[in-house]
Amino acid sequence: MSFATRTRRLLYLIHRWMGVAACVLMALWFVSGIVMLFVGYPKFTPWERLGALPALQANSIRVPLTRVLDAIDVPVSEVVLTSIGGRPCYRLQLRDGRLIAVDAASGTRLSVDTAHLLASARSFLSQVTAQDRGLVQEDRWTHSRALDPHRPLHVIDMHDPDRTRLYLSSVTGEVVLDAPRAQRGWNYVGAWLHWLYYFRDRPIDPVWSWIVIVLSAAGTLVAISGTVVGIWRWRFSGHYKSGGHSPYRESWLRWHHILGLAFAAIIFTWIFSGLMSMNPVGIFDARGQKPDLAAWRNGDPVVDRLPLQAGAAVSLLEQHGFRAVEIYWRVLNGQPYLLARNAKADTRLIVLGEDGSPTVRTQWDRSTLLHAATRLMASTIASQQELARYDNYYYARQPEAMMGAAERRLPVLRVRFTDAHATWSYIDPFTGEVALSVDRAQRAGRWLFNFLHSWDVPVMLTSGIGRDVILILLSLGGLAMSITGVVIGYARLRIWSNKQGKKRPIATRA
Question: pTM value?
Fold first, then answer.
């Protein structure tokens, strides 16, 4: 038997037997993918979180931050003035990653008890009764690593029309995730099914990761072998005795052949990009030096903080018509400032003016950001541009999408560096923060995963319902191909089972 003949036979066998299971898995992926276009995995977007917070009141902030920091005998890396359970609180992040919440009215550390948790839940959803469901370390809706500092999580079911389930921090008592009942239900046939989360039981789970990688790789191999076999069997010129271009007379086989060729490209790209989403063996990890955010700040936001009391900052913002719900202490290139957010996630900056008095700004000027950007990388800046529109790497997604919780404001300053891995950084002038940094490997991952899987280039995202309609139609085509494969596989297994039964001795069969 020649090498070519052996290769062809091997491809036939791979597609025939691996396809039996792969078509079942691919059918589930297509169904769940359609659901995910409209219902995403539970996430706590900035707009949800900030929209539920009350506006800060200057007269209720009676304890200065200095007194709070003096009472804590451990280094603090970040301070946020927010509200927990309707009360103004300082949320402190320690250098070791732990969180502490201190009442800004009394200066006492918050005690997370049942009464505090219920008050926090009712503050998030007012005029609604709540039921405490106890503690969980992690469940099917709380795999995000961002929740790690808050674990274990308190689960509270709200008796609102949406039957919302809230997850609250056991450390601070604040709401960290909401999951309405309808969203949870759809996720069983959506993201939870699509990502095979029934195999996952912790935020970092190498067993789950390799299960998805192996299954995706197997699906990719089945798609490639099916495409090659389908092309071999299709007569582009001439016909078989049946009069068709396909040799199969049985309807399920014929339609599997036709649909497989018609949707071969999209089936392959979706399965392959799903494999790429797992970043196998770290092929899309950032290479070389990462942007040095400490050098970017050139100061400690807690030690070198702006000399303005929190209550006075709230009053100053109110004078400018801005109702802040959160205030962050920040430093940019050695210059301390306050970053304030309102319930709509709009921002304002409080910085020291030329006369040394605090003043409110909408955004940082370009020259200040560029001067700070020179500290981000050891290499020089190759080019810089202010973008008024999204590009292929910095763009916004709808809330149900995987990146739907990322804030992507415009305009944004894009800075390209001359380092060996061609790092690009996107700087948000409204916050003074680096919103995104990607090197060459990460940009490659963006195309091999995000684009192939989600068609998320800006021109497609702005096409409205057109993109969704096309993705649904292509998914239905892939689903139809998968269903024909499931039927064929079931019939093939029955035939194989019957043959095996006939081979066994009569006494054994009895």
Answer: 0.91
Quote the pLDDT of residue 489: 86
Task: Give residue 394's pLDDT.
Answer: 97
Report the pLDDT value the prediction gives residue 497, as an integer from 0 to 100. Answer: 75
Q: Please work out, in degrees rounded to the nearest 5, the angle formed at the alpha carbon of residue 96 by the alpha carbons of 91 and 98.
A: 35
Report in angstroms the alpha-carbon separations of 491 from 22, 253, 258, 497.
Answer: 15, 11, 19, 10
Which helix (H) or strand (E) covers residue 187, if one does? helix 181-187
CA 148-431-387 angle, 5° bins: 115
Which of 263, 326, 309 has the alpha carbon at shortest distance from 475? 263
| pLDDT confidence of residue 74 | 86
pLDDT at 508: 40
Backbone angles phi, psi at 87, to 5 degrees: -110, 140
User: What are the residue ranges of CATH 3.10.450.40 in the chain?
Assistant: 46-197
pLDDT given at position 504: 61
Q: Which of 205, 202, 113, 129 is nearest to 166 (CA)?
A: 129
Question: Which residue is listed with tokens 């804590």?
Answer: 72
Residue type, 452: L
Indicate the fold that domain 46-197 takes in CATH.
Answer: Nuclear Transport Factor 2; Chain: A, (3.10.450)
Length of the chain: 510
Given a cut of 70, the residues of the chain with pLDDT beneath it are 1, 203, 501-510
